Amino acid sequence: MGLLPTKKNTGIAMGPTGSSLFKDPVWCFVEIIQPPTHTGTEKGSLSFLSPLHLHSKLRRSLPSRSISSTPEAAMVSAHTIRTVVGVIGNVTAGALVLSPVPTFYGIWKNKKVEQYSAVPYLAALLNSMMWLLYALPTVQPHNMLIMTMSGVGLVIELIYIAIFLAYSVGAARRRVLLILVAVVAFAATVAALVLNLAHTHTLRSMVVGILCVIVETGMYAAPLAVMKMVIQTKSVEYMPLFLSLATLACGISWTAYALIKFDIYIIIPNVLGVMFTVVQMILYAIYYKSTQQILEARKGKTSQIP
Protein backbone atom coordinates (compact mmCIF):
# COMPACT_ATOMS: atom_id res chain seq x y z
CA MET A 1 0.00 0.00 0.00
CA GLY A 2 1.82 3.10 -1.22
CA LEU A 3 1.52 6.35 0.69
CA LEU A 4 2.85 8.71 -1.97
CA PRO A 5 0.49 10.09 -4.65
CA THR A 6 0.23 8.07 -7.85
CA LYS A 7 -1.66 8.68 -11.03
CA LYS A 8 -4.35 6.06 -10.45
CA ASN A 9 -4.84 5.06 -6.90
CA THR A 10 -4.07 7.83 -4.46
CA GLY A 11 -5.31 11.28 -3.70
CA ILE A 12 -4.63 13.70 -0.87
CA ALA A 13 -7.25 15.91 0.75
CA MET A 14 -6.13 19.52 0.82
CA GLY A 15 -7.35 22.37 2.95
CA PRO A 16 -8.52 25.72 1.69
CA THR A 17 -5.91 27.96 0.02
CA GLY A 18 -3.42 25.07 0.10
CA SER A 19 -2.74 25.27 3.83
CA SER A 20 -0.10 22.92 5.27
CA LEU A 21 -1.59 19.77 6.70
CA PHE A 22 1.24 19.32 9.20
CA LYS A 23 0.59 22.76 10.60
CA ASP A 24 -3.15 22.14 10.97
CA PRO A 25 -3.82 18.86 12.86
CA VAL A 26 -7.50 19.02 11.97
CA TRP A 27 -6.83 17.99 8.43
CA CYS A 28 -6.09 14.42 7.49
CA PHE A 29 -4.73 12.55 4.49
CA VAL A 30 -7.08 10.48 2.40
CA GLU A 31 -5.64 7.43 0.69
CA ILE A 32 -7.72 5.79 -2.00
CA ILE A 33 -6.94 2.10 -2.11
CA GLN A 34 -7.83 0.24 -5.30
CA PRO A 35 -6.91 -3.43 -5.09
CA PRO A 36 -7.06 -5.39 -8.36
CA THR A 37 -10.01 -7.73 -8.89
CA HIS A 38 -10.39 -10.89 -10.98
CA THR A 39 -13.24 -9.31 -12.95
CA GLY A 40 -11.19 -6.39 -14.08
CA THR A 41 -13.30 -3.91 -12.11
CA GLU A 42 -11.89 -1.78 -9.35
CA LYS A 43 -13.51 -0.89 -6.07
CA GLY A 44 -12.10 1.95 -4.10
CA SER A 45 -12.04 2.48 -0.38
CA LEU A 46 -10.99 5.46 1.67
CA SER A 47 -8.42 5.39 4.44
CA PHE A 48 -8.11 8.49 6.63
CA LEU A 49 -4.67 9.00 8.22
CA SER A 50 -3.74 11.69 10.69
CA PRO A 51 -0.56 13.64 9.89
CA LEU A 52 1.33 12.01 12.79
CA HIS A 53 0.21 8.54 11.72
CA LEU A 54 1.26 9.22 8.12
CA HIS A 55 4.62 10.59 9.25
CA SER A 56 5.24 7.41 11.26
CA LYS A 57 4.35 5.19 8.29
CA LEU A 58 6.56 7.22 5.99
CA ARG A 59 9.53 6.78 8.34
CA ARG A 60 8.96 3.01 8.46
CA SER A 61 8.68 2.81 4.66
CA LEU A 62 12.02 4.59 4.06
CA PRO A 63 15.11 2.36 3.78
CA SER A 64 16.94 2.30 7.09
CA ARG A 65 20.62 3.27 6.86
CA SER A 66 22.65 3.81 9.95
CA ILE A 67 24.87 6.86 9.99
CA SER A 68 27.99 4.82 10.47
CA SER A 69 27.31 2.82 7.28
CA THR A 70 27.34 5.80 4.94
CA PRO A 71 30.44 6.29 2.74
CA GLU A 72 30.90 9.80 4.18
CA ALA A 73 31.07 8.48 7.75
CA ALA A 74 33.47 5.73 6.69
CA MET A 75 35.75 8.29 5.04
CA VAL A 76 35.68 10.50 8.13
CA SER A 77 36.54 7.52 10.31
CA ALA A 78 39.45 6.49 8.06
CA HIS A 79 40.68 10.08 7.95
CA THR A 80 40.59 10.31 11.74
CA ILE A 81 42.51 7.06 12.18
CA ARG A 82 45.06 8.14 9.57
CA THR A 83 45.54 11.46 11.36
CA VAL A 84 46.14 9.72 14.70
CA VAL A 85 48.64 7.33 13.12
CA GLY A 86 50.34 10.28 11.39
CA VAL A 87 50.71 12.11 14.71
CA ILE A 88 52.30 8.98 16.20
CA GLY A 89 54.58 8.86 13.16
CA ASN A 90 55.60 12.46 13.79
CA VAL A 91 56.44 11.67 17.41
CA THR A 92 58.55 8.62 16.50
CA ALA A 93 60.24 10.51 13.67
CA GLY A 94 61.03 13.30 16.12
CA ALA A 95 62.61 10.79 18.50
CA LEU A 96 64.64 9.39 15.61
CA VAL A 97 65.84 12.82 14.48
CA LEU A 98 66.75 13.84 18.04
CA SER A 99 68.64 10.63 18.82
CA PRO A 100 72.06 12.12 17.77
CA VAL A 101 71.74 14.95 20.31
CA PRO A 102 74.22 13.31 22.75
CA THR A 103 76.75 13.02 19.92
CA PHE A 104 76.50 16.69 19.06
CA TYR A 105 76.57 17.67 22.72
CA GLY A 106 79.90 15.86 22.92
CA ILE A 107 81.16 17.69 19.80
CA TRP A 108 80.12 21.03 21.28
CA LYS A 109 81.69 20.19 24.64
CA ASN A 110 85.00 18.98 23.17
CA LYS A 111 85.06 21.68 20.46
CA LYS A 112 86.00 19.11 17.78
CA VAL A 113 84.22 16.57 15.57
CA GLU A 114 86.82 13.83 16.15
CA GLN A 115 86.05 10.82 13.88
CA TYR A 116 82.37 11.56 13.37
CA SER A 117 81.12 11.90 9.80
CA ALA A 118 78.64 14.51 8.54
CA VAL A 119 77.49 12.34 5.62
CA PRO A 120 74.55 10.68 7.45
CA TYR A 121 73.19 14.07 8.45
CA LEU A 122 73.62 15.49 4.96
CA ALA A 123 71.73 12.47 3.62
CA ALA A 124 69.00 13.03 6.24
CA LEU A 125 68.81 16.67 5.13
CA LEU A 126 68.26 15.61 1.51
CA ASN A 127 65.64 13.10 2.67
CA SER A 128 63.76 15.82 4.58
CA MET A 129 63.88 18.14 1.57
CA MET A 130 62.50 15.47 -0.76
CA TRP A 131 59.62 14.55 1.54
CA LEU A 132 58.83 18.21 2.14
CA LEU A 133 58.57 18.66 -1.62
CA TYR A 134 56.44 15.51 -1.92
CA ALA A 135 54.00 16.75 0.74
CA LEU A 136 53.40 20.14 -0.89
CA PRO A 137 49.73 20.64 -1.87
CA THR A 138 50.85 21.25 -5.46
CA VAL A 139 52.54 17.83 -5.59
CA GLN A 140 50.61 15.43 -3.33
CA PRO A 141 47.69 17.12 -1.50
CA HIS A 142 46.39 16.19 1.96
CA ASN A 143 49.75 15.25 3.51
CA MET A 144 50.13 17.96 6.12
CA LEU A 145 51.57 15.57 8.71
CA ILE A 146 54.38 14.55 6.35
CA MET A 147 55.03 18.22 5.68
CA THR A 148 55.34 19.04 9.40
CA MET A 149 57.60 16.05 10.03
CA SER A 150 59.84 16.92 7.08
CA GLY A 151 59.97 20.61 7.96
CA VAL A 152 61.01 19.95 11.56
CA GLY A 153 63.54 17.35 10.44
CA LEU A 154 65.02 19.78 7.92
CA VAL A 155 65.58 22.44 10.58
CA ILE A 156 67.17 19.99 13.04
CA GLU A 157 69.49 18.51 10.40
CA LEU A 158 70.61 22.02 9.43
CA ILE A 159 71.50 22.64 13.09
CA TYR A 160 73.56 19.43 13.20
CA ILE A 161 75.40 20.38 10.02
CA ALA A 162 76.03 23.89 11.32
CA ILE A 163 77.69 22.38 14.41
CA PHE A 164 79.86 20.22 12.14
CA LEU A 165 80.89 23.25 10.13
CA ALA A 166 81.64 25.22 13.30
CA TYR A 167 83.95 22.60 14.83
CA SER A 168 85.54 20.98 11.76
CA VAL A 169 88.65 22.42 10.15
CA GLY A 170 90.51 22.48 6.87
CA ALA A 171 89.61 19.94 4.21
CA ALA A 172 86.92 18.32 6.39
CA ARG A 173 85.01 21.60 6.64
CA ARG A 174 85.34 22.28 2.90
CA ARG A 175 84.07 18.78 2.10
CA VAL A 176 80.99 19.22 4.33
CA LEU A 177 80.28 22.62 2.83
CA LEU A 178 80.65 21.30 -0.73
CA ILE A 179 78.25 18.40 -0.09
CA LEU A 180 75.79 20.78 1.57
CA VAL A 181 75.77 23.05 -1.48
CA ALA A 182 75.30 20.03 -3.77
CA VAL A 183 72.36 18.73 -1.68
CA VAL A 184 70.58 22.08 -1.65
CA ALA A 185 71.21 22.60 -5.38
CA PHE A 186 69.88 19.13 -6.21
CA ALA A 187 66.69 19.63 -4.17
CA ALA A 188 66.11 23.09 -5.67
CA THR A 189 66.62 21.76 -9.21
CA VAL A 190 64.18 18.90 -8.69
CA ALA A 191 61.58 21.27 -7.25
CA ALA A 192 61.92 23.73 -10.12
CA LEU A 193 61.72 21.04 -12.82
CA VAL A 194 58.79 19.19 -11.25
CA LEU A 195 56.69 22.26 -10.53
CA ASN A 196 57.28 23.79 -13.97
CA LEU A 197 57.36 20.80 -16.33
CA ALA A 198 54.95 18.35 -14.68
CA HIS A 199 51.41 19.69 -14.79
CA THR A 200 49.42 17.06 -12.89
CA HIS A 201 49.47 15.82 -9.30
CA THR A 202 49.92 12.27 -10.52
CA LEU A 203 53.05 13.01 -12.54
CA ARG A 204 54.55 15.29 -9.91
CA SER A 205 53.97 12.83 -7.07
CA MET A 206 55.38 9.98 -9.17
CA VAL A 207 58.66 11.78 -9.97
CA VAL A 208 59.23 13.10 -6.44
CA GLY A 209 57.94 9.88 -4.87
CA ILE A 210 60.47 7.73 -6.74
CA LEU A 211 63.29 10.02 -5.59
CA CYS A 212 61.99 9.83 -2.00
CA VAL A 213 61.96 6.03 -2.17
CA ILE A 214 65.58 5.97 -3.41
CA VAL A 215 66.89 8.44 -0.82
CA GLU A 216 65.07 7.01 2.20
CA THR A 217 65.86 3.41 1.27
CA GLY A 218 69.52 4.41 1.14
CA MET A 219 69.21 5.93 4.61
CA TYR A 220 67.55 2.83 6.04
CA ALA A 221 70.18 0.61 4.39
CA ALA A 222 73.08 2.63 5.81
CA PRO A 223 73.15 0.58 9.08
CA LEU A 224 74.01 -2.51 7.00
CA ALA A 225 77.68 -1.55 7.41
CA VAL A 226 77.17 -1.38 11.17
CA MET A 227 75.48 -4.79 11.15
CA LYS A 228 78.47 -6.25 9.32
CA MET A 229 80.76 -4.85 12.01
CA VAL A 230 78.49 -6.31 14.73
CA ILE A 231 78.79 -9.78 13.19
CA GLN A 232 82.58 -9.46 12.83
CA THR A 233 83.21 -8.13 16.36
CA LYS A 234 80.33 -9.99 18.06
CA SER A 235 79.52 -6.71 19.79
CA VAL A 236 76.54 -4.34 19.54
CA GLU A 237 78.43 -1.53 21.27
CA TYR A 238 78.16 0.73 18.23
CA MET A 239 74.57 -0.17 17.39
CA PRO A 240 72.50 1.74 19.99
CA LEU A 241 69.27 0.00 21.02
CA PHE A 242 67.33 3.27 21.36
CA LEU A 243 68.14 4.26 17.79
CA SER A 244 67.00 0.86 16.50
CA LEU A 245 63.74 1.02 18.48
CA ALA A 246 63.01 4.56 17.27
CA THR A 247 63.67 3.50 13.67
CA LEU A 248 61.38 0.47 14.04
CA ALA A 249 58.54 2.52 15.57
CA CYS A 250 58.91 5.18 12.88
CA GLY A 251 58.81 2.63 10.06
CA ILE A 252 55.76 0.84 11.45
CA SER A 253 53.86 4.11 12.02
CA TRP A 254 54.40 5.45 8.52
CA THR A 255 53.68 2.08 6.92
CA ALA A 256 50.31 2.01 8.70
CA TYR A 257 49.70 5.64 7.69
CA ALA A 258 50.30 4.82 4.02
CA LEU A 259 48.16 1.68 4.11
CA ILE A 260 45.06 3.49 5.40
CA LYS A 261 45.14 5.71 2.32
CA PHE A 262 47.31 3.70 -0.04
CA ASP A 263 50.55 5.47 -0.96
CA ILE A 264 53.14 3.19 -2.51
CA TYR A 265 55.91 5.79 -2.26
CA ILE A 266 55.59 5.90 1.52
CA ILE A 267 55.07 2.16 1.92
CA ILE A 268 58.17 0.90 0.04
CA PRO A 269 60.96 2.63 2.01
CA ASN A 270 59.24 2.19 5.38
CA VAL A 271 58.58 -1.53 4.87
CA LEU A 272 62.24 -1.96 3.92
CA GLY A 273 63.21 0.09 6.96
CA VAL A 274 61.15 -2.15 9.22
CA MET A 275 62.82 -5.23 7.72
CA PHE A 276 66.35 -3.82 8.19
CA THR A 277 65.56 -2.79 11.76
CA VAL A 278 64.12 -6.21 12.65
CA VAL A 279 67.43 -7.72 11.51
CA GLN A 280 69.24 -5.24 13.78
CA MET A 281 67.06 -6.27 16.73
CA ILE A 282 67.80 -9.95 16.06
CA LEU A 283 71.53 -9.21 15.99
CA TYR A 284 71.18 -7.23 19.21
CA ALA A 285 69.51 -10.21 20.91
CA ILE A 286 72.18 -12.61 19.61
CA TYR A 287 75.24 -10.56 20.56
CA TYR A 288 74.05 -8.77 23.71
CA LYS A 289 75.69 -11.25 26.11
CA SER A 290 78.96 -11.34 24.19
CA THR A 291 78.98 -7.52 24.20
CA GLN A 292 78.71 -7.46 28.00
CA GLN A 293 81.57 -9.95 28.25
CA ILE A 294 83.75 -7.82 25.96
CA LEU A 295 82.99 -4.66 27.96
CA GLU A 296 83.75 -6.40 31.28
CA ALA A 297 87.03 -7.76 29.91
CA ARG A 298 87.98 -4.31 28.69
CA LYS A 299 87.13 -2.81 32.06
CA GLY A 300 89.24 -5.47 33.78
CA LYS A 301 92.25 -4.68 31.62
CA THR A 302 91.86 -0.96 32.32
CA SER A 303 91.75 -1.52 36.08
CA GLN A 304 95.01 -3.54 35.92
CA ILE A 305 96.97 -0.65 34.39
CA PRO A 306 98.97 1.05 37.18
What does this structure look like?
By secondary structure, this protein is mainly alpha-helical. It has ten helices and two strands. The chain has helices at 51-61, 71-98, 101-110, 119-134, 144-167, 170-197, 201-221, 224-233, 241-260, 264-304, and strands at residues 29-33, 45-49. A two-stranded antiparallel ribbon has the order 1-2. Helix 7 runs parallel beside helix 10 (264-304) and helix 9 (241-260) runs antiparallel to helix 10 (264-304). The termini are far apart.
Strand content: under 5%
Q: Give the strand order, joined by hyphens, for the main sheet.
A: 1-2
Please report the distance between the alpha carbons of the first and last residues.
106 Å
Helix content: 55-70%
Chart the SSEs and their pairings.
Elements: E1 29-33, E2 45-49, H1 51-61, H2 71-98, H3 101-110, H4 119-134, H5 144-167, H6 170-197, H7 201-221, H8 224-233, H9 241-260, H10 264-304
Antiparallel strand pairs: 1-2
Helix pairs in contact: 2-5, 2-9, 4-5, 4-6, 4-7, 5-6, 7-10, 8-10, 9-10
Summed up:
The protein is mostly helical. It has ten helices and two strands, in the order E-E-H-H-H-H-H-H-H-H-H-H.
Labels describing this entry:
mainly alpha, disordered N terminus
